Amino acid sequence: MKKFRGFTLAEVLITLAIIGIVAAITLPSLLVNVNEKAWDAQKKALHARLAQAIGQMNALGGYGTYTEGEDGNTTADTAAESFILDALSKVYKINNVCGPDKLSSCGIPSKITTLDAVSEINFPTKMSELNPVLLQNVGNIGLGEDSNVDTKAAAFETVNGESIAVFYNPYCGTDSSIYHFVQNKMCVNFVYDLNGKEGPNQVGKDVGFMTAFYRKNSTLVAPVPYKENAEISPSYSESKDVIDAAGACKLKGEDLRLPDRDEIASLFINAPLVNMVDSIGFWSGSIISVGNSGFTWGQDFSNGGRAPVSRSYTGYVRCVYK
To answer: Are 178 and 237 part of one and the same domain?
Structure first.
């Protein structure tokens, strides 16, 4: 009868060591992929819930308390908090509401990492910290109020454990088909952390943003941007303008596309979070018909202006995930 020899202790130990090394190499990447897929699903679910809530609101204005500061400037320290309590909570289930001085009590981290995973910044606590340009070129919206108000953020926690900071503009206007500044069209900007203060607290992973535009017929967009820009020089053929810009996204990845005009406006609102503060003009995938020529809506990041972009324009593209 043929005898079978067992493994020696040395062979077993070597095998276990190899398994350990392989596990050490592969498990972290597997865990990252699992976390990112879970975050993607959670982001989509959160966007769907908030979009439904915003759609149920008759208007995104008229909520907030305003006082006169010692320097004579108008302030709105409780505007966002009042919006959450008096408006959003009527159409969306909220666990906890925190004022501007207690954001951490709602799980908002003190610092977050930007989209490029290089810079760590303080979590914005008011409109000017979210993006200083938001306080420029405001007030021309026909509502009769001084809309140059640096409102403070408030926050709330959802029943699913998300922590959401709210940046509120009580003077947001309606949509326009001509040149305008999008900071006048932003009603509410949400910056969320899917797991509160737990890591990694990075934009594009557990941290993201959504923006509601327009006092009437409100839309809520939730762009998930790619980490870097692509520069384009479109041809003078009208039919190729957006095709060239879209092609720049395809070169970056098949799962990328051009943002529409509200999505690129949302990226402008949150520019410091996605490393777009030093850029000027960006293309969108939204077409506008002006006269007999085809134009694309472009977004200026230096002043917030949104306007039809001519076919001779050379600018940048920041792609978003499909």
So the answer is: no
